[in-house]
Amino acid sequence: MALDFGFGFVAGVTGTIAGYPFDTVKVRLQTQTLNHRLYSGSLNCFMKIAKQESILGFYKGMSSPMFGVALINGIVFSVQNASKGLFENPDTYTALATTGAIAGAVQAFICSPIELVKTRLQMQGIGQQRKLFALSTHLYNGPIDCLRKSYDRRGFRQGAMRGLSMTLARDIPSFAAYFPAWQLFVVNFSPTGKEADMPMYMSLLGGGFTGIAAWSVSYPFDVIKSRYQASREHVYKSVWDCAVKSFRTEGWQVFTRGFLPCTLRAIPTNAFTYPVYALLKRTFDAPRDQETVTPISTTKPVSKSKSKPSPPSKKVSPPPPTSSIGPMQSI
């Protein structure tokens, strides 16, 4: 459990750094309205941020998800692995979808305030030139200040946890699709059907594939979540009011806005997240299992050599220990 959390933490940091600029573009496109349209598309948004706000403009609010997403990934992988104990065969697609949904629901309670802070900091100072990490004018001095002011204005439920219902609606189906998608990729593209035997470039492609699959089933919920969290408190009465008003004023296309940068973000982010987790697990977790098996095979002949001196010469290399090591190494 502790190792799964640590591996997921490191994988989350890696994935966040790789895909954060695309996330900033995604949020900017999701939250703009027809009455106040700043960007004509993904490329235009990317170019304007780079020109007006410099390269640092893409990393606004990254300190919040840097450790937040790392923490979330640690929770996801540890909860998902712990939930496998509910099934006799945890590698079936049904079991993977169920354990993924459980992990998604648990982490949503931590993810929601982190994404609230991230979204509001990403929307802060649009078009302003950045000097290091300072803005000429700003509402929030940083993640802690943003969370504190959100809590002071609306309290815990409507302030700090604003958008929790949409986070749950997004993450439960998203993670329910994430783990089966990875298993599907491994089964079809690994030479032996096991992720340990898959080359690194295929692992990176598989991570991108799982990210796209996860976002495809949950993206409309993410649009509503971003618009609701980024808006001022008096604009929408509730999440449902946000969804209805967005649809009435901008049509069904509003629910797909920003999907292209989201897809581009999913490729580097998830290409590093799960493969890095799997690599760390194979490197630091698997040898420990092998070390626990090896002493068992050496102690059995010693214990029997004390009772009878002659038979041990015939039982020095018995078949049971070698057969027990084989499955452990294959796992």
DSSP summary: helix tally? 13
Element-level helix/strand string: HHHHHHHHHHHHH
Largest sheet: none
**Proportion of beta-strand residues:** under 5%
Give the tally of β-strands.
Answer: 0
Question: What report would you give on this structure?
Answer:
The chain has 331 residues and is mainly alpha-helical. The chain contains 13 helices and no strands. Helix 4 crosses helix 7 and helix 9 (219-230) packs across helix 10. It is globular, with a radius of gyration of 24 Å. The two termini are 18 Å apart.
Can you describe this structure in just a few lines?
The protein has 331 residues and is an all-alpha fold.
Keywords:
single chain, 331 residues, mainly alpha, 13 helices, globular, disordered C terminus
List the helices and strands and how they pair.
Elements lengths: L1 H30 L10 H12 L9 H21 L9 H30 L20 H12 L1 H5 L3 H26 L10 H17 L2 H12 L8 H12 L8 H26 L1 H20 L13 H12 L1
Helix pairs in contact: 1-2, 1-3, 1-11, 3-4, 4-5, 4-7, 7-8, 7-9, 8-11, 9-10, 12-13
